[in-house]
Design brief:
The chain is an alpha/beta fold. About 45% of the residues lie in helices and about 20% in strands. It has a domain at about 235-285. Strands 1, 2, 3, 4, 5, 6, 7, 9, 11 and 12 form a 10-stranded mixed sheet that branches. A two-stranded antiparallel sheet has the order 8-10. α5 (about 135-145) crosses α7 and α10 packs antiparallel against α11 (about 265-290).
């Protein structure tokens, strides 16, 4: 049976956050739109699967025998689900009352929009910058080095983060965070599902880029709200997450700009990877000294 929206949650060892996420989806009053919920578990080693089976038997559960990554796990549920829209929701996120209704109401009113995203808040209630413009060379420098802290109001970073955007108004944006992303099913049928070359990170940038390339807009829809506790899965393996982030940007730029067009960006990516690796090693050395 076709529903208005299929909510898809990929989980890896975040049972407490996953439970809160699912509770938010089934909290009263229930959404007026028809919806189903899919959890794709990436071979968690904790009690995540048992918790879902025990507390949320209505959830469609897919159990992977290995960590398939974010894109591939989402695609399993995208293929199995029937929603007119798919709503990718991180396990460490929780929807506010009415969020699904407001997203679908907007999506049905704007046929040009291919990808839409809600306002995203941090757990303390402050705004999380979930919509961005597409990155460039200078934005990468300021975003990933101490230059961003030394010059927080520089135009490159502000333009990338859309920090001057009126986050109370519906806006056309470059791309949206995959922590809470509504995608029109018909767009997926045109451009394909999430690119599984991205194990984790940049798959959201890539999907939004493909939406634009297909002639569809990407919209920020603040009438709907989600709270997101950033990185509760990736924090469990910071070093690997950093390497995956850099590699995902490499894949993204080669895919969309070719080898020659991506050369300068790749040089920056390598530099950022080296810088982040240095910071990791420095943190480890400090921890070892403190243990002595």
């Amino acid at each position: 049976m076709t529903v208005d929206v299929s909510v898809i949650i990929v989980n890896w060892n975040t049972p407490v956050y996953l439970k809160a996420c699912l509770e938010s989806l089934y909290a009263e009053p229930l959404p007026k739109v028809s919806y189903d919920v899919w959890v794709v578990d990436n071979a968690s080693s904790d009690n995540s699967v048992a918790m879902v089976k025990r507390d949320f038997p209505q959830v469609n559960l897919i159990e992977n025998t290995e960590n398939a990554g974010f894109s591939k796990a989402n695609n399993l549920a995208i293929k199995a689900s029937t929603g007119r829209y798919v709503f990718l929701l991180n396990s460490d996120a929780a929807v506010h009352p009415g969020a699904l209704d407001k997203l679908i109401e907007y999506a049905d009113s704007d046929k040009q929009a291919g990808v839409m995203g809600p306002k995203v808040l941090n757990p303390d209630g402050s705004l999380q910058y979930s919509c961005r413009s597409f990155p460039n060379l200078w934005a990468g420098f300021f975003r990933n080095t101490k230059l961003g802290k030394l010059f927080p109001n520089n135009k490159h970073l502000k333009m990338y983060m859309l920090s001057d955007l009126d986050h109370s108004k519906v806006s056309i944006v470059g791309w949206l965070s995959g922590c809470a992303m509504l995608i029109r099913r018909s767009l997926i049928e045109r451009v394909g599902p999430m690119d599984e070359a991205f194990f984790m990170y940049c798959e959201d940038v890539d999907m939004c880029k493909r939406s634009w390339d297909a002639g569809c807009t990407v919209m920020y829809v603040p009438m709907a709200t989600v709270t997101h506790a950033i990185g509760k899965s990736s924090d469990k393996s910071y070093e690997r997450a950093t390497a995956l982030l850099c590699d995902s940007w490499r894949i993204y730029y080669i895919k969309h700009f070719g080898d020659r067009g991506a050369l300068r960006i790749l040089a920056v990516t390598f530099g950022l990877w080296a810088y982040k690796t240095y910071r990791i090693q420095k943190r480890r050395a400090m921890a070892r000294r403190q243990q002595k």
